[in-house]
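User: quick one, sequence for these tokens?
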């Protein structure tokens, strides 16, 4: 394996979803550099379906405050981001993640109030200095959402290569109306997700979680390709 492959592999493997950040400022130039790399992601017929809102300082805090109020409203509609019932193989991994994550925070599975408070930290971007909101035009099909995933992955890898950390957060999509009103989104635009960007708080135990991945042979079939040494 050549040195470039080693570097890229190392950056990808070092990326984790960070859920506790230091408050250290991130420059506009750094954010622009990351987005400039990310925009090279492929998209169907070069449609480039992504739109990004970068928030920091007072603007980020104002949105976080609005989201916190909405989150505290128990009547606010839930976001069904996974099917119900969730197929067994996916549910097992989801439950394993929950056990590890809340366990690291010292939260018992039955402690609903503490779990709710922990989830609420999403909307303060886990203390990161930069919050990102991503939107897409609602008329676009699932293939454009696939393109969007490639763009988001580019952001996370470009950030990690610069010593920065991220956490992609689908939880923001629940508050479409709140975010639309605050950002004054044009009609027909939909929130894809949010993302926290900053430097990981290395003292936080939650950032030392080791989340397992399925081995390659569990999700891959080779047809007509002989193994080579």
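Assistant:
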């Amino acid at each position: 394996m050549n040195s470039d492959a080693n570097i890229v592999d190392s950056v990808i493997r070092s990326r984790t979803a960070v859920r506790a950040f230091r408050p250290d400022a991130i420059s506009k130039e750094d954010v622009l550099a990351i987005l400039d790399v990310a925009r090279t992601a492929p998209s169907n017929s070069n449609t480039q379906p992504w739109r990004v809102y970068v928030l920091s300082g007072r603007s980020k805090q104002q949105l976080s405050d609005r989201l916190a109020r909405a989150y505290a409203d128990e009547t606010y509609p839930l976001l069904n981001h996974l099917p119900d019932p969730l197929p067994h193989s996916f549910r097992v991994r989801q439950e394993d993640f929950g056990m590890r994550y809340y366990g690291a925070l010292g939260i018992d599975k039955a402690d609903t109030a503490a779990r709710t408070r922990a989830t609420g930290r999403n909307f303060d971007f886990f203390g990161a200095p930069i919050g990102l909101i991503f939107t897409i035009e609602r008329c676009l099909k699932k293939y454009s959402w696939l393109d969007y995933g490639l763009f988001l992955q580019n952001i996370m890898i470009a950030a990690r290569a610069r010593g920065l950390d991220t956490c992609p957060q689908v939880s923001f999509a629940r508050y479409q109306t709140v975010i639309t009103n605050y950002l004054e989104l044009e009609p027909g635009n939909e929130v894809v997700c949010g993302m926290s960007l900053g430097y990981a708080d290395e003292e936080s135990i939650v950032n030392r979680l080791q989340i397992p991945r399925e081995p390659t042979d569990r999700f891959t079939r080779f047809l007509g390709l002989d193994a080579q040494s």
